[in-house]
Design goal:
single chain, 208 residues, mainly alpha, 3-stranded mixed sheet, 10 helices, 54% helix, 5% strand
Length: 208
């Protein structure tokens, strides 16, 4: 199994490459994260990369333990005056290895899912290596929605990846690319159009 930080750095640098050269309008494109632009997603990833086990406690206390407020403050703190300044900040932290007190594979969820949050509205595609996608999906399937995972969304259906040997759960089948399964169980209903099978409607209802 590859060191998680090597995979995280690969995902960060790949997103940096994809964001390099965007024009101002593209940076202001709404991402798949409600209320966030592509620029905001990049700033969130900067803030996330800077987070440590101590800083997250401090920041959550200042946000009165409101996760959404803490995230919004982090975006504002990490966002540069221009998109290029934010992108430069992302370059600085791309190889950083600090983390909040969470399972390390959750760092892959952050990078893969948020990377797609930015890419998909821009019409960009990345041929993700198998390992980070599979590890991120596995993490989401065993982690509660309340902790940022997707276990409850996937309950009662059988997920089958069509691009690799990966099956999870029991019930009516939902089939599609592993990356799209990851996006949907992470709450991105936009990726439901990539999926087929008798369980899609049930999964869609769980995503909301």
């Amino acid at each position: 199994m590859t060191d998680v930080w090597q995979l995280v750095a690969q995902e960060r640098w790949a997103l940096i490459d994809d964001l390099t050269g965007l024009d101002d309008d593209q940076w202001e494109t709404p991402s798949l994260c409600p209320g966030w632009t592509v620029h905001d997603v990049a700033a969130h990833l900067v803030d996330n990369a800077r987070t440590t086990r101590l800083s997250i406690v401090r920041d959550m206390a200042r946000a009165r333990f409101d996760f959404d407020r803490q995230n919004a403050r982090g975006v504002a703190r990490a966002k540069g005056a221009t998109p290029q300044e934010t992108l430069d900040r992302l370059r600085v932290v791309a190889d950083r290895r600090t983390t909040p007190p969470a399972p390390l594979d959750s760092r892959l969820v952050e990078e893969v899912v948020h990377g797609e949050d930015a890419r998909r509205p821009l019409g960009l595609a990345r041929a993700h290596p198998s390992e980070p996608v599979e590890r991120a999906l596995s993490h989401q399937l065993r982690t509660s929605v309340g902790l940022g995972g997707g276990r409850q969304r996937a309950a009662g259906v059988r997920l089958r990846a069509t691009d690799r040997d990966l099956v999870h759960g029991d019930g009516p089948e939902v089939a599609g690319p592993a990356l799209s399964l990851l996006m949907v169980v992470s709450g991105r209903g936009q990726a439901l159009t990539d999926l087929d099978g008798p369980g899609v409607a049930q999964l869609a209802a769980a995503v909301g």
